[in-house]
Protein 1
Amino acid sequence: MWTEPFILRGLLAAVIMAALASPIGCLMIWRRMAYFSDSLSHSALAGVLLGLALGIGQNAGVAIVVCLTALLLTQISDRFIIGMDLLLLIIGQTALCAGIIGFSYMPEIRTDLTAYLFGDVLSVTGDDLIFIAGAGSLCLILLLLNWKKMVFATVMSDVAQSEGVCVKKLSAVFMILTALFVALALKTTGLLLISALLVIPPCSARFFAKTPEQMAGLGIIIGVFCVIGGLACSVFTDVPAAPAMEIFCAVFFSVCCLYVKCNKRIM
Amino acid sequence: MPEEIKETLIKLNGISVDFNGRSALDNVSFDIFSDQIVTLIGPNGAGKTTLLKIILGIIRPDKGSVWKKDGLKIGYVPQKTNLSRNIPLTVERFLCLEGRRHDRATLRQTLEETGAGNLLFRDVHPLSGGEWQRVMLARTLLKQPDLLVLDEPAQGLDPVGEEQFYALLTRLNQTKHCAILMVSHDLHVVMANTHRVLCLNRHICCSGTPHEIAGSPDYHTLFGKESSLALYHHCHNHTHLPDGSVCHVD
């Protein structure tokens, strides 16, 4: 059964996503921006609509809209009287509602709404896979080129800036990175569950990591393991794949919590 | 300070900054020379941290210019770091943050110079205030700076730790020949360990050796006459209104 092409395609898509989720998720957690991916992914539904309306395909539409939303968010000054966390929530919920209303006007795809919200990893096509691999490679390049500077700027923004690191540019790179990730993960996990896969595996890794790189690396291993586990569950018991992956991550995290508590390691 | 090796490291010329239409710094000019310890004092909101950030290139001034010696290396120890506990970090990894690799012997030796030799493999989160300051200082020393910039380095240290930390700075100034610019509220220490004091309240109220400053009426206007320094009688050329703006006595 595992050799069925649609399962292999789904598996590959899920593994690429899980491998990228950990380093991006780590940066997001360290920058205290866990809500950020939520808002961005909520705007993805509008991207699907745009892609269909323009006839450029939904993946391209999602990538464009999410990148534009991300760049809009970089323009919000942290001196604005309404806090960033609140603005993210307002923008995210509004984008989701706009997307759902837009969908109701398109009867031919209306039934697919659940797939966009909660993912449909087993329906990943060859074209989707090419898009996922392409966007994934771009994410990987951006991460490798900027990782050290990003960690530096996350730990001590002012000091990094005084030593010639352009913090503004790094913020923009981070936004683009998250936007690309949302676009490539949409098919696999659905827009409502993207944040869970970004955040939970790195949190499990935090218990055992001593350096930022260990946390990101361990997060990749945990993420890939949970995604494969979730997909296997889905294949054999017919439960939806993305929620099964999420539950796997959450169970793993709980086990880590218990392990740490039993070993009396105070974090 | 030996006169013969005095060289200008930084020249500030007429620096002014506004934040939201409110003047934060007004026409500030001064020079920093090699080997000198300069201390910036002034009340809260006087623009001390802003001035440091202008020197470091983090904030761009609205008016005025900053000249730096070619190839000047500045090490910055910020006031406080708001480090998320979610980021795992050892002292060793912290020291290599800027991206350059150093071997462990160099790292340990540098930590020993700041009195933190035993901390190399420790997690940074449980470090005490004093340990953290020493580790941050060690990180800046790795790039052999010509100028150290410190923002209230003794904040949160107990009196003994504070005295030790200032002694360490004096020692580094003498052995490494690096100039030091720091913000400090510890007036008694400032007076003992500093070559030059700048008294800032959005503009430079007065500057000079600690001895000269102690006699300045502007200093007493800012810090009160009970500050444990001898009094001299001088002619005020200006006083401060409650909001800190200058009122010239004509």
Protein 2
Amino acid sequence: MSVKLFDFPGGIHPPENKQQSTRTPIRPAGIPDRLVLPLQQHIGEPAEPCVEIGNRVLKGQVIATVAGSLGVPVHAPTSGTIEAIGDYPVPHPSGMKDTCIVLQPDGEDQWTELAPLGDYRRMDREEVLRRIREAGISGMGGAGFPTDIKLRPPKDRKVDTLILNGAECEPYITADDMSMRERAEQIISGLQVMAWILRPHRCVVAIEDNKPEAIAAMENAATGTQVEIRVIPTKYPSGGEKQLIQIVTGLEVPHGGIPADIGIICQNVGTAIAVSRAIHQGEPLVSRITTLTGEALANPGNVEALIGTPIRYLLEQAGLDKSRLNRLVLGGPMMGYTLESPEVPVIKTTNCVIAATASELPAPDPEQPCIRCGMCAEVCPMELLPQQLFWYARAQEFDKAEHLNLFDCIECGACSYVCPSSIPLVQYYRFAKGEIRVQQAEQLKADRARERFEARQARLEREKEEKERRRKERAAAAKAKKEQQAEAPDTAKAAADATDERASKAALVQEALARKKARNQTGDKKQAETATAPERPPVPEANQPEVDIEELEKQLLKAKAKLENMQGMLNEARTANADNVDKLERAVAKNTERVKRAEEALEEARS
Amino acid sequence: MSLVQQSSPHARKAMPTSKVMLWVILAAIPGLLAQTLFFGWGNLINVIWCIAVALGSEAMMLSLRKRPVAFFLKDNTAAVTGLLLGLSLPQFTPWWVSGIATASAIIMVKQLYGGLGSNPFNPAMAGYALVLVSFPVAMTTNWAEAAMLWDGAPGFVETVKIIASAQQTTVDAFTMATPLDEYKHKIATHTAAEVLQHPTFGEGVARGWEWVNAGFLLGGLILLARRIITWHIPVSMLAALAFMSLAFGSNEDLYAPLTLHLLAGGTMLGAFFIATDPVSAATSHQGKLIYGASIGILLYIIRTWGNYPDAVAFSVLLMNFAVPFIDYYTPPRTYGHHKPPRGIAGKGN
């Protein structure tokens, strides 16, 4: 079983500060007055509420669902009444607000009907995955990727190794450590479910050697199973997914790829517990183990808190000394972020809260110039050149920073930790990454605008050519007609003259007849006139159609031009998603009608 | 309750620049001690004088550049520049020569390029090269004869007087050609055995010099142990020097032997204290290896075939020119990538 372990480059050994929160067993945090449940607790899509204000819900009942695949539902962590649905502060580095469901617990903590899966080995794997998804399980260590998706590697990838990440390399945090000490059986059973789904060759639990109790408990629980417990040297950031894979397998996740690309899946200890509960007890994810630590707390330790429990409630329970609290960090001291207020709730990824005093996490010294000492490069686990990246980030030479693989930075903070010039390096990298992303978005927008502009130019050009072509055709037609007319007038005139002559003769005859009639039937003038009217010479009528056709042609062209113009406007509006699309559509329809009518009229006139 | 808002990491445990520089100064003590024991008070006086000039020039330039004076003086980097010059200059260098070297190092090479961290050249070596080229006589005739501090070397006051006097008439009595100089100029007409008769060589490799180099080697090992420098530059530099000496100058009747190259002159001071100046050196491990080895090769070439008996300053400065180029072509391979991002952004890779 002793397969070789590997090392990763760089790394640091910050003071562990773990003993403060491992002295007492995990304690239940109890039920607070209200629970705030963000609809988005992980990467991916937010859930949609499926309850209404005033509804009574039971513990474990689904209160928000997700239509797409990149998200998991949210469950009521206890029984109670839906009090509100609205924007509340959520745990996020920006301190932003997001949509949350507020639940007022009734204190009864009454479960909804649970359906354990029984022997999952007899089930279809899809069914088990569906259960994991319906239990609302997303990764409980890092970014909180929906677990069922992670357990569905690309079809063409064979999973070789399933790694359960129990390294917990970051100082202060002991949630995984305490979970492994106290819930080793559950972790192994959850891991076995995941192993059954993935069917890997190896199933490894990696634990840093600074957790002897956890190692003993896990080894005990793993006896008689295929699970390997690997003790890895304590070095930050060994628990980084990429680093842990390197330690356990010696392989590197390719740039831009995912661990599944090299046949590896990493899962978190807390996730294994959640999977075990979902499959064996039928319980959805409604609580998690969170470390409460820091010198501003009288009773640091680990608690099992309901999802949605306000952090203020947990801190007060742990004996917060408000006068000493200086910095509230969510997560560890290396990668965690500060909170603006303790009102934010515990979510599925909340592994640690540090209520730090000013002396515990002191303000950094003023930044000094970089002397390129290279200590940052010595500790970088990704083998980047932090000092060069800093240089380029500060000079805003982002192309050069990108060239030196800025985006491979995992923001572990080891470089900032050792920098003698006290430069907040990670902050510079975040800034540079942000700027590059903005630039890329702008570039994309500009590219689209250019494409659109070019398309418009091309269309206008085409139209111009078309117009020109038609103008020439018309000119040619007109010329031809003129020539025709130049010949035609003689015959036409002759014909006209002939008709004239005939007509006048007829008229004379008619007149004579009329006079005679009038003499015979005096006074009946009107009758005589109506009688004579249809027999009026048809001279003017012969010329009339000629004029009409030309007029109609002109009208038709005009209508056609207008229609084309309208259509162009409509297309533009459609690509720009403007709100006058409807109006333009109607206008185009109207003009199409007009053109059709003009064509019909012309046709009629011609025939 | 007003909570501190801060970007991660929240924990920091760094040795500040001022302490890093303090360690460099402390690590130089064994070498300085050996210099003083074997060559008298000259180096110590130079060190004190050069540090004073360095701090004064730094303060003046900082205030001219409207920078916080105390904040930057406290980083000890100007003091290190003064220290390195004091350790490198001949023991009886006239005060104004060392003063010009130090002042130009700080004013022109460091501050006019933007101060700490922005200088492309090693300030101490640029200052040294400037006076070596400008005042060649003062820079070659003022090396103290190896004589124990308590036995034959001029006393402290006398040394101060020699350094401070403009004429320097009395100095000849206490000076002597350096071993590298002596060997270089005599070996053309003499055998190695004859050359080594000269008292500058003493009974070991090079009287006094071997201890001075041992002292700086010890200091360098302290810096390595404290992780203030990495092994790449000193090891590659010394290895390249050794390789050149063995490959091209193994005949002692024609070329100075390897032991002399390693233990006479400024070899160890250069390898551990000067070439390792991070501001003007290459960045990555591979870059440092190339940079150090190139310095070692240039050091041997100039010492052997050039006009100067020693060449740490020129070798380091020449390679300072090459640092941006080396850096472009030697970044490490990042995790998950097949090859390192060589060259300039947008090209290659």
